[in-house]
Amino acid sequence: MSEVVVGSALPTLVIDLTPTFVISTALATRDFTPVHHDTAVARAQGSADIFLNILTTMGLVERYVTDWTGPEAELRGIKVRLGVPAYAGDTLTFSGTVAEASGGEVTVEVTGAVSLGAHATATVRLALPEAA
Amino acid sequence: MTAGTPAGGQESTAGEEAAEPDTHGHLMALADKAIGAGEGPRTPAPDPVNPVMIRHWAEAMGDANPRYAGPDAVAPPAMIQVWTMAGPGGRAARASRTPLDDLLGAFDETGYTGVVATNCEHTYHRHLRPGEHLTAGTRMTDIAGPKRTALGEGYFVTWTVTWYSQDEPVAEMLFRLLKFRPRERPAPREPYPLRPAVNRDTAFFWEGARLGELRVQQCAACGLLRHPPGPVCPSCHSTERAYVVARGEGTVYSYVVHHHPPVPGLETPFAVAVVELPEGVRIVGDVVGCPPSEVSVGMPVRVEFREMDDELTLPMWVPGGES
Fold this sequence. Notes:
The structure holds two protein chains of two kinds.
Chain A: E1 9-16, H1 19-28, H2 39-44, H3 54-69, E2 74-82, E3 91-102, E4 105-114, E5 117-127
Antiparallel strand pairs in A: 1-3, 2-5, 3-4, 4-5
Chain B: H1 20-36, E1 43-44, H2 51-61, H3 99-109, E2 114-124, E3 134-148, E4 153-165, E5 168-180, H4 203-210, E6 215-219, E7 225-226, E8 241-245, E9 249-258, E10 270-276, E11 282-287, E12 300-307, E13 313-319
Antiparallel strand pairs in B: 1-3, 2-5, 3-4, 4-5, 6-7, 6-8, 9-10, 9-12, 10-11, 12-13
């Protein structure tokens, strides 16, 4: 990856939230709550559709940042503030900015946005071994 | 920010159900108990960290990180919670109720039935490798409330899960959710049975009524006021339209008292008047606020806006001007 400079932006990642994506990630995270795979149950509870589960949101934030760093990054932590639901049929767009970088320790601010607004506002801390 | 009320002496009795402070005290006592209980029993992961679940997870996420594949694979750090997720049986399948379960149950029983997760924070101490057997221990750490939120009044409840490999803590998760009383929406009113014909020519008038304005159409070309509204100025034939807001006072120019037949939504007899406005137009409306027998030609009236249902506001006329 290129040099890590505070203020530089990460390339955006756009994820098409198909029902298949919402359901397969819910099951891959062993989350069997019906609102993540059963449209009728989700709607009966007042939701527009099935929606992404939190374990997947965490996984996607991780993927977004490590897609950018490459596999050598060591993740220290991910803090997510949860916002609006990410419904099936919507699009989830990740954007990010390097907030801090010193001695190989990097902090990235990430936003995952859907049509309703911010789905996840995240701070990711990681270490890059060979970065100065 | 922590549970404020000590548990001692706060045992509320069934006879005091109406008092809100007792609900708060009850919830806080349970919260103190849950926080005081510390970390609950460690729940073992059903399976050790394994490459099959890692591959399934990475495929579903679309994560092509090569570290998650091959003989030296590590588990994706963000996958930590997956290892100890209960199966389709969910939490009911868990062995015993914890004080935190009791607290969450008490929220539901006292009307705080809504739930929304607000924060999820992971801390990773090291990578996990296939073959490691994990356990997870949960402790409640904080309660804050009652707070007024956009969703309704509620409490923020925070707990921390620690995952262990043998006795070594390998990751933590802070999880915060809001338990709230869903906002009660007033039941929609029965729609008023008589509805005006609203179209592009007249919509401004009815929008004005909802805002408490008596709007009179005005030709945007020559300035002539006209009522009822229409598409074309009868004087200069312009279709450019505007409006002015009338003062809302006038005099009865003419009226009828309707006795029969019955009209849905109205009680007979009722008076309907043509009211002459000082602005120079006449407008039809019900006269209310006095018996129909007291209505007379020349009587000063002023407009009053009445909400007939959730959508319709009608301008009506009551006795008295220059108020």
